[in-house]
Each structure stands twice: as structure tokens, then as C-alpha cells.
Amino acid sequence: MRTGAIVLVWLAALGGCPADATPAPDVRTADATDTSALDTATPADTAEPPDAADSALHEVEVAPSDSTTEDADSVAADTTPAGPPGCDPILTLGPPGLYLFPFGDADLEPAGGTGAYRFALDHDATGALLHPLTGAYLAGADPGVDVVRLTDVGCVGEATLEVRVVAPLELAPAAATVPPGAGFTFSVAAGSGLLAFAVTSNASGATIDAAGTYLAGPEPGDDVVTVTDLGTGQVASAPVAVRTGAHLVPTPPLIGVPLGETFAPVAAGGSGHLDLVGDGAGLEVVAGAWRVTAPGPHEGVLVDVFTGQQATQRVVGLAPVGLTVARTGASTFALSALGPGDLDGDGYRDAVVGVGEANVARYQSGAVYVYRGGPDGLDPEPAQVISGLAREDELGRAMVVADLDGDGHPDLAAGARRADAAPQADDGAVLVYPGLPGGLFADTPVTALDGPFSSDQLGFSVAACDFNGDGAVDLAGGAWVGEDRALSPLLSNQGAVHVWLGAPGAWPGPVPDQSVYGLAPDATGGWAGVANGRAGTSLATGDFDGDGLCDLATGGYTFDNGAANDGLVLVYRGVARTADDPGGLDPIPSRAFAGDAPGGSRLGWFLAAGDVDGDAVDDLLVSQAYWNHGTGNDRWGAARLFLGGAAFAGPAVTLESPDAADWTATGTRGGDYFGYSVAIGEATGAPPADLVIGVWIGECDGCPSDGGRVDVYAGVAGGLPDAAATRVIPGAAAGDRIGSAVAPLGDVDGDGGPEVIVVAGLGDTLGSDVPRPWVASAPSDEPATYDVLTPLASPGEPGGWRVGQSLAVLADLDGDGLAELAVGAPNQDAQRGSGGHLLLSGVVHLYRGAAAGVPDAPAQTLQDFPGHSGSDWLGYGLAGLADFDGDGAPELASLARYEDRPASFAAATFAEGPGCPHSAVNNGGGVYVFPADGAGGLAPTPAFVYYGPQADDTLERVVGADLDGDGHTDLAVASRLFDASGRSNAGGFVVVRGRPRADPAKTNVVCDAALTWTGVAANDQAGSALAPLGDLDGDGCDELAVGAWLEDLGGANRGAVRVVFGWGPACARAAPVAVTLSSAANDDRAGTDLAAADVDGDGLTDLLVGGASHREANVSVGAVWLVDGRRLRGLAGGAAALVDGVAPAPASPLVTGP
User: Fold this and answer.
1) Is 344 within 8 Å of 374 (Cβ atoms)?
2) Which of 221, 338, 961, 988 is deepest in the core (most CB within 10 A)?
3) Buried-state track 982-1011, b at ≥16 Cβ within 10 A, e below 16
4) Helix, strand, coil % (nearest 5) of the chain?
């Protein structure tokens, strides 16, 4: 019986069951989502613990023993509970040879033991997940080898399994083209490495071995090579085209690459995997691309990595067109200046100047310049230059210096009204640059406060003050074309001021705490939003009502108070913070003023605040720079001072006239623009604060003509400022516009005489019309002479000429057999032969063809001729003409986008053609035709001019084609902005017939058009592109392609292209007809651009159509469609009459087939 007792104890210890007992549940079936099982599981889940075994043993009835006491004692000793036995059968874990991809999963396969399995990761190389009870395995993201360990709670033993996580295999080449009999070896990356190759489609009679070496068969055909990963089961295939004579063909065989730039070549044929070999003479290889370091032709070798095939590609190093580009201004007048006091704590006052059009890091990114004061005055070199972040941001148009975070260091908040916060455009921003110990600012902003919506142009103005009286400085930014989007209908260009309430240790943003908008009195006696008020054009802050809280004044100079641009000024009182209300600004104006002078006086053009009478209450200075003294547009200009006090306590109930001002000063002659800029501060050396007023085109006795002037009016304690200027600061040179921005600094150098910053908006000392700041200091013999001006440096780069905006190749002019190149620079200033320049007039440079490439300098510049003036943008478009006037010589057509047609023409220089109206058209654009001069160049005076027919709908495109087959090249000019009745911005084009010169000695004015066609619907913007197509149908008359990139055609912005077939007595058609091609997808914008060339060499011109917004997989990638010239010719029979404003017959698709 001792034996039986031992068996019972053993079974109890194992927790096992008799053979006929019901087995315990298999723990592998446990719910994997029941995480409590992982926390509470004990051996009792699968086998009884030792205590249970003891209990079972005590319940067993053991028969009496015949053994002796010694035997019984030894048996008792043997019955002590023992540990689990070794696993039998032994543990194993599968499946063997397991390969998975990242994030692949598998159910592991345990065997042996008792079935009470536990799983664990011994080594986790991939970031895997493993269920400890079920063995469910999920690979991690990284390739590697994980090791899983298997144990059994019911027995002793373990097993391990290696799980190899591999990336999917990559077969290279993915495709190939080879001649019969050629061979190469495939390369396989990643995968398990256990591979089997096969030719699964074998048209050529090819073979492949176990290493992946493929040998094409003797017959042309299409083979398919397949590789199977025996570890993962992945299958990859590569087509191999076997073609007789197949070889490597560089695409293109000849490529021009600018010096210093790179180009990654491609080739047809072979495997598509290339090694490059340079020529050692200026053609280098960098990261799989050509890099050209020397001009002229080079030959590089392309070597196919797999097939070994070779080909030569010609690479021409292109030197830049030789042109010395100078720094010039852009006439934006986006300027500001500040006297922030002593920024760096050295006892000397400093200065800050903003130039929104500066080219520092980028074109018109704008810049802020910081100048340190010292014992000798301001250092003329800026101590810091902060650039805008992107092209045309206009950083520095407005700015303020204040301690926004309360750390004791003044910070800079600068407006960038054209900044973009993608996907928005021109939403604008106020950028905040933290102040640093030492008085400068961080070079990058700590926060960018973006305009809420596209085109809001936040940052047009900036101000800072404590509006709610909590001791922290608040920030305000003007968005002069913002709108209150809660209103319906929306009030366009209402204008907005956004306010960010300050807090110690915190930066403002991103969402404003309050916004106030342009308002005007309504019919009920209240205030309502008003369209086109443009509140936020200017800002000024101060305690105008004397209640101890800062108030805010904002100007909107375009407000219509009976006439456009009368102007508006609104004053909003500060509201104290309470326990329940953060305060800020009262949303109802406390005082409001509106211009009422004839001619659009632009009240609120600029604002300034300060205490000019010494009563401890701030006063408001309002600019009315376009105020007219008489009934015409004489633009004397005015500045109005409103003394602070109870009158600002509000609320306002009506719009006050500027005549309610307590003090007014005006210009003294027409065109002064008195008040173009205004400021209040220390400018005379004695309190209270003084008025500093820019007179934009003002003059003085003995001063340069139109140099501008700055007048200083001394503040008077207890009274009004002096009636006459105490101090006069003239411009340094004629045309400087010295009053474009002003800022009193106080006494910088400690000599007792305060300095004033003045900015010449059109200065010429740094380049033509480049803004420049100056420091004005009172002379020692004051008041005998005017102030002394010291220039300050404002570094910037050349740029902004738009060189290359247009290009045209002209037939050989000088008889050397080489074509010439015309280059447009529409924003370059033309230099006048009589002296001076024409701002933004535009020029055209002519380069002669040369065997060694384009020369270093133009042979000729077209710039000074009758009719050409500032802001014309000559050279915006160019076209080489074969022969417009029939004299057998080529011409150049140059488009001047903003040209004005005069009401009359000087008979000495112009010959009017038939049908010329005697009415002016502003900004309609024009096209000048310059003939050959017979001496190898172009005549400096145009032979013809055609003016655009619609004011402000500028011409944008020009091409030449003989559309009527008469031997004269015709002009086609287009504008996306053309209007027709009920069809604003429908766009269109005009055809002007070539003709002989009626008067060879003059510029012939062309006023008649053979065709004027306007788009079908509003905003179609037909005329987005033009392309001459040559004679497609063989009738001797050329065809023309016209894009309409926003035409809907049953969808939305699909875009269309019309192919207009030539017409006239010599043509197959007497009237114009067209076929229309269109994309079938919305927002493709087909017709964004067009180009034409005989791509396939069949003698017919093919058409390339650009669609800048075409989408693939819902991602905007753009597209170019190629339309075969043979197809275009085939469509001619279905062409329909081209009628102005009439929708086409159903459009043909841009491409046919699958």
C-alpha cells in the first residue's frame, strides 16, 4: 500500500487527473482581451497548488501497513511534495523558418508538455507584441530577428523560435529593354534571401539561373521574369522587352544646364539604372546627376548598371545672360520708423526703421533695421537687420517696440501684411521678436500671429498699449481688408483690428482675444459694419479720455462718406479688466470722424498720439494727406489735431467733420501731400511733445525740387502747437520724398538738440528709387539754415527687375546666321537720354547670337521712346515676328502690361490709324512693334503700337502668326481680365492684322482689330495662354491655340483650349472657326499654359497643354497633355464658328484612348 500512497501524492502534486476524469480547460483558449487573466493567473488555473495537493493527500484513505516502523518512517519521508517533472514529450515551438514583414502577424505553434503554455520575448529586435497565453505574435516596425521562448507551467522545459522580420524584397531592374541574346543579372534587396527565379512568360526563348542571371532568347518578344521569396511567399515580376536593335537612348540627347546647377538624366532602353561618367572638363557627377561647372558643350557617358549598355549625352553649360543688375526700389512706400528710446541701457537713444520692399534674404521680404545711439549720434551702420521670412512678405511696413512678455526687455512686433500661412495667401501676420539683453532682438520670431483668412493682410498696421489696465502690454494689429465673417451678407474690405491681451511671461497668440471692425452709424442711431472702410489702415494708441486706460484709434482711408476715399477714423476706449471680464476695447466707438472734403481726402491715412499740451492726456493727430484746398485734385494735404479729454469719453453717435479739429495745418501748394506721415514726440528739446509732419512732395526755399520736407511744430503747455513750423527738414535731393516716414528720437548724442529719423521713399543714393533713412540734426547756427542730414545704411540686395519675365527668339538681324535673343525686364527703370529714369517702366534687352554662347552684355536696350512712361511694365510679354509690316525683315513685339492709351497723340511722333477713339484708357496695356534697323539691331522707336481696349484689364500675352495667309505676321494679344456684359473676367483675345507702315517716320497707332473674342462666362479667364500652331490644315493660313484655364464646361474649373483655324480671302475659311479641347476632371485648369512644337518630326506642330492643378490620388501634382498635330488637323472638319461669348459645341477630350 505504500506504493499506492506515493502515486496519489505524485498525482496531487502535479494537479493531474485520472485518465477517466474530465481534463482541465486548455489555457490557450483564454480570451486574449481579458487582461485580468494576466494579472491574476496562478498555477491553480491549470494545476492545483501544493496546499491543494496536501489537502488531497489528507483526504486519501491509506490502508494499514504491514511494514515495520522504520519502513513507515522512510515512506513518510518520501511523501514530501516534489516539483513538476520534465516535459514529456519535450516542448517544441513552430512554425520553423518563420519569416514575416513588418507588422505581420502569426499564431505560433507550441507542442509537447502539458499544454499549460507561457510565451515570452527573449529578444525583441523589431518592437513586436506577443500574447503570453495564446502566443499570438505581431511583428514590429523594424526588420530584425525576434526570439520567442515557450515554457509550460505544468512541467519543466522550454523551446525557442527565431522570427525573422524582413522588408519586402525589391527586384531590380523593375523592367528592362534589351536586344536578343543580351543578358544581365537581377538584383534582389531585402526579403528572406531564399529565392527562386523563373521566366514565367517566355516569348524570346530566354533562360534564367538560380542566381538570377537572365539571358534573352534569339527572338524579339516580351518576357516576364518572376522571383519568389521562399521564406515570405512574396512574388515579384519584371517585364523584359526583347527588341531587335534595342540600345540606350538618353532623353533628351541634348540638355542645357545652368552653371552650378544639376540635372539627373534618364534614358530609354536598358534597365533604367545608370552610372554617369563626366568629361573632367566641367561636367561633374554629383549624387547621380550632372553638375556643370564650365560653359559650353560637354559629353557625358551613361552606363547601364545592369546591362552594361552605354550612351553619350550632350550637356551644354549655360552661363547666365550677361546683365549687371543694380539695386532699385519698387515704389511701395511700405515704410515705418520708431524712436523707441534707449534699447540697450547705455544712456543713448536708439532707432528702428522698417523697409517693407527691402530685398535682404528674399525678394521684397522686407527688413527691420536697428541702429544704436552713441556719443556721436546714431551709428550709420545697423546693429541688426531682421529679414522677412518669405518673398514679398513686406516685413517692416508697420511695427512697434514694447515689452510684451513683461521680462524687462523691449520686444519687437513687426507687420508682414503679405505673409502666407499655407494654405492661405496674403492673410498677413504680425511677427513677434523677443528682446534680448543688450538691446537687440532675436533674429527669428517667437510667434507669428496670422490673419484669420486669406487676403486679410494682417500687419498693415501695428500698435501696443495696456487697454485693460492690468499692467501687461496688449498688442493690436490692423488687417485692413479683413471682414467680420459672422455677418451675412459679408461686407467686403470692412477692415479689422485684432487685439491680443497681454499677460506676464506669456506671448500673444495664436487667436486674438478681441476684434473690432470698420463701423459707421446706421439708420437706427446705432453702429453697423460698413463695406470698403478698411479700418486698420493705421493705428495709434494713447489715453485720449484721461481715464487711465489706453484707447485705440484706427483709420480707414477708403471709407465712402459721399465720395470714394473720404476716409474714416474710429476711436475705441479701453475697458478695465474685472473678475468676470478680461476687458480690452469697448466695441462701440467713443468718437468718429469722416472726411467730407471734395476729391477723396483720405482722412486717417496716418495717425499719431501723444501729449502736445502738457495736460497728461494724450492727443490725436490725424493725417488727411490727400486733402484738396480747392475743388479739384490739388492735394495740398492737411493734418488735424484733436486734443484729448472728455470729448473722447463717448459713445459716439455720429461722424464728426475733420473741421472739428482743435488745430489744423495744411500744405501751401498743390501736390504737397502735407501729412503723408505724422508722429508725436520730442523734436524741439523742450516739453511738451511736438508734432512731426511729413510733406511728401513739399519744397522750401533753396531746397531740392520735389525732395519732400518734414515740418516740426512745437508743442505748447496749456495751449495749441505753434502755427508755424519751428523746424524744417528738407530732402537731400530732388525727388527723394523725404517725408515718407518720420520718427522723433529725442536727443541721441546728448548735445541738447533732438534728432529726427526721416525716410526718403524714392532716394537714389543706394540705387534708383531705393528707400533710405536719414538722421536729421538741428544745425549749430539754427534757425539760419535747415537741418543737417546724415544718411544711414540699409543693406539690401539687387532684385525685382523681373529679368527673364519674357523671352523671344528673333530671326538673324546682323547677318551672322545666328538668331538673336530678346529678354524682358518689366520692372527695370528705363534710363532717359535726357537724364533721369522712369520708375518701373520696364525695358527689353537684345542679345546677339554668338557661337560661344550669349554675350556678357546686351547689344541693345529698348527703353527711351515716345509714349513710354513709368509703371508701364514694358517687356512683360515678347514675341518674335517674322514680318509684320511686309518689308522682309523680322520685328519684335513687346507687351507693356500697364500702358495707358492717351486721349490724343502728338502729331509729330504718332500717326493715328483708322477708328482711333479720342478717349484715354488707363492700364489697358499695349503692344509695341520694333522693326529691324538695318544695322544688325532693332530701331529704338517702335513702328507700331496697339493699345488694350479696356481700362484696368491689362494685356498679358502676345504671339505672332500669319492667320490670314497674306504674308504679314498678325498679332494675337490676350487678357484674362477682359469683361463683357454680365461676364466679368471672362477673358479673351484680340487679333490685329499685320500691315505696311502708313508713316515710316512715326509710330503708327493701330486701333482696328480683325477679331475681338470674349470668353463664355464670368471668371472663365480665357486668354490665359496663347500658342501659334503653324498651318495645320495646309490652306496656307496659320492656326492659333487659346487657353481658358478656368472655363467650367459642365464642371468646375476644368479648363479648355480652343484651336482657332486661320481665316481670310486666302484661307479655306472666310470666318474664324474653332475646335475646343477640355479636360474631363474638375479643377484641372487645362490651359494654364500652352506651348507648340513639332515633337514627332512629322511636319505638323503638336500642342502641349499645361494643367497646373491636375490631381492624382487626390494630390495636386499638375499635368501636361500632348495633343498630336495630326489629331488637330483631323478635328478641323468639325470646327464650329467662333462667336464672342457663345459656348462651344461639346468639347473633345485632350487625350484619346485608354
Assistant:
1) no
2) 988
3) ebebbbbbbbbbbbebeeeebbbbbbebbb
4) 5, 40, 55
CA 267, 269, 273, 279 torsion: positive or negative? negative
* Identity of the amino acid at 827: N
Structure-derived torsion over alpha carbons of residues 214, 215, 218, 219, reported in degrees to the nearest 10: 10
Same CATH topology for 92-165 and 170-242: the answer is yes
Which among 837, 839, 833, 803 has a CA at the least distance from the CA of 821?
Answer: 803
Taking the C-alpha atoms of residue 699 and residue 709, their distance in angstroms, rounded to an integer, is 6
CATH superfamily of the 170-242 domain: Immunoglobulins (2.60.40.10)
Please count the CA atoms within 13 angstroms of the CA of 357 that sit on its side-chain side.
Answer: 19
Look up residue 984 and give its amino acid: S
- How far apart (Å, rounded) are the C-alpha atoms in residues 204 and 199? 10
Angle ∠(174,180,183) on CA atoms, nearest 5? 55
Burial (Cβ within 10 Å: 0-12, 13-18, ≥19) of residue 522: exposed
CATH 2.60.40 fits 249-318, yes or no: yes
Task: Give the tens place of pLDDT for each residue, 29-88.
Answer: 333 333 333 333 333 333 333 333 333 323 333 334 444 444 444 444 455 567 889 999
Cα–Cα distance, 1023 to 1009 (Å, whole number): 16
Q: What is the pLDDT of residue 39?
A: 37
d(CA 895, CA 880): 12
CA distances, 1131 to each of 433, 1033, 1124 (Å):
62, 10, 11
Across the range 401-428, mean pLDDT stands at 95
Question: Which residues are registered as beta bridge partners of 620?
Answer: 609, 642
Q: Is the pLDDT assigned to residue 782 strictly greater than 80?
A: no
> In angstroms, rounded to a whole number, what is the distance separating the alpha carbons of residues 874 and 749?
48
Sheet arrangement for strand 235-242: 176-178, 235-242, 221-229, 195-201
* Torsion sign across C-alpha atoms 1007, 1008, 1013, 1014: positive
Mean pLDDT of 977-988: 96
Asked if 925 and 842 count as a contact pair (C-beta separation under 8 A), the reply is no
User: In whole angstroms, what is the distance from residue 1131 CA to residue 1074 CA?
Assistant: 9
Judge whether 605 and 555 are in contact, CB under 8 Å: yes
Task: Locate the domains of the chain by residue range.
Answer: 92-165, 170-242, 249-318, 1015-1153
Least confident of 135-144, 361-370, 492-501, 831-840: 831-840
Amino acid, single-letter form, for residue 682: E
Q: How many residues are present in the chain?
A: 1154
Residue 306 is placed in which grid cell? 545592369
- 1126: enclosing H helix or E strand: helix 1125-1131
State the Cα–Cα distance between residues 870 and 843, nearest whole angstrom. Answer: 11
Q: For the sheet containing 335-341, what is the strand order?
A: 335-341, 350-355, 367-371, 384-387
Q: What is the pTM of this model?
A: 0.77
Q: Are 739 and 700 in contact (CB under 8 A)?
A: no
What DSSP character marks residue 558? T
Which is it for strands 1003-1006 and 944-947: parallel, antiparallel or unpaired? parallel
Alpha-carbon distance of 508 to 390, in angstroms, equals: 22
Q: How does pLDDT run across 505-539, given as a tens digit for each residue?
A: 999 989 999 999 999 999 888 999 999 999 999 99
Does residue 246 have a pLDDT over 50? yes
pLDDT at residue 787, rounded to an integer = 87
Rg (C-alpha) for the chain, rounded Å, is 42
Q: Give the model confidence (pLDDT) of 336-367 as tens digits.
A: 999 999 999 999 999 999 999 999 999 999 99
Instruction: DSSP for 107-174, please give it.
Output: E-EEESSSS-EEEEEEE-SS--EE-TTT-EEE--SS-EEEEEEEEETTEEEEEEEEEEE-PPPEEE-S
State the fold for domain 92-165. Immunoglobulin-like (2.60.40)
Contacting residues for 1113 by C-beta, under 8 A, at least 6 apart:
none
Whether 387 contacts 361, CB under 8 Å: yes
Between helix 69-78 and helix 2-14 the angle, nearest 10°, is 10
What gap in Å lies between CA 846 and CA 872, rounded to an integer? 19
59: helix, coil or strand? helix
